[in-house]
Structures are given as C-alpha cells and as structure tokens.
Design brief:
Blueprint lengths: L9 E6 L3 H12 L3 E7 L2 H11 L3 E4 L8 H10 L5 E6 L4 H9 L4 E4 L4 H13 L1
Parallel strand pairs: 1-2, 1-3, 3-4, 4-5
Length: 128
C-alpha cells in the first residue's frame, strides 16, 4: 500500500450520518496534521466528495442511509487509491470489523470515541 505524504498538511474526509460524530471528529482533527477537512453524511455523498477532494485519510461509519460503509470501502478500494480508511462504528461484533478489513479498510475504531482514541488510531495507521 502506498502511504500518503505526511510531511505536508493532509486532507481528511469524515463520513458519518450523525452530525454530532462528524463535528466531534472534525473538531478534534483540526488541531492535528490535517490542513483541510471535508464532511459527508453517507457513502454516496462520500464518493462524490472523495473524487473531487482526494483525501489522504477517510473516517467512515458502517451503518448509514443510501450507501453503507462496507460498500463505500469496497468502491474506494476499486479506485486504487492510497487513502487510508478508518472505520468508526458502534457495531461491536468481530465479524463486522473483519469484513470491513477484508474489503479494504485499514483500521477499526469502536464508538463512542474519545479524542485520544481517535488521534491514536489515525497516527497508528499513518505510521505503520
């Protein structure tokens, strides 16, 4: 997998149907290495934003209207992108996490998230 260039300000796409979660992730990541952050409320919107924005990192919920996160991961991977995808989901069952990773996600973070867990998960993915 090609890693994003972390020496420059990076781009983050936050995808979640919850406005609260989108804002929490956005607020906490503004104080990190991300120079630009865009938001999407479902997988279909995420794909449109992704094509224009070309983010380095995508945080992605699984359960969303119109297009779920697992389908979105699969389509993003078909685009042969180097974007790192972190699933952030309330679905705690192991099979969902395994399926997300099989489809191309790089990591899985369980809701509710804390600023610390979010930062650690993203840094871990960027540095490994």
């Amino acid at each position: 997998m090609t890693r994003p260039d972390t020496s420059r300000p990076m781009k983050l796409l936050v995808v979640d149907d919850s406005t609260v979660v989108r804002r929490v992730v956005e607020r906490n990541m503004k104080r990190s290495r991300f120079g630009e952050i865009r938001l999407a409320c479902n997988g279909r919107e995420a794909l449109a934003v992704f094509d224009q924005f070309q983010p380095d990192v995508v945080t992605l919920d699984i359960t969303m209207p119109e297009m779920d996160g697992l389908t979105t991961v699969e389509i993003l991977r078909q685009k042969k992108t180097s974007a790192i995808i972190l699933i952030i989901s309330a679905l705690a069952d192991r099979s969902t996490a395994v399926e997300a990773l099989k489809r191309g996600a790089h990591g899985f973070l369980l809701k509710p998230i804390t600023p610390e867990s979010l930062h650690l998960a993203i840094e871990d993915l960027l540095n490994n």
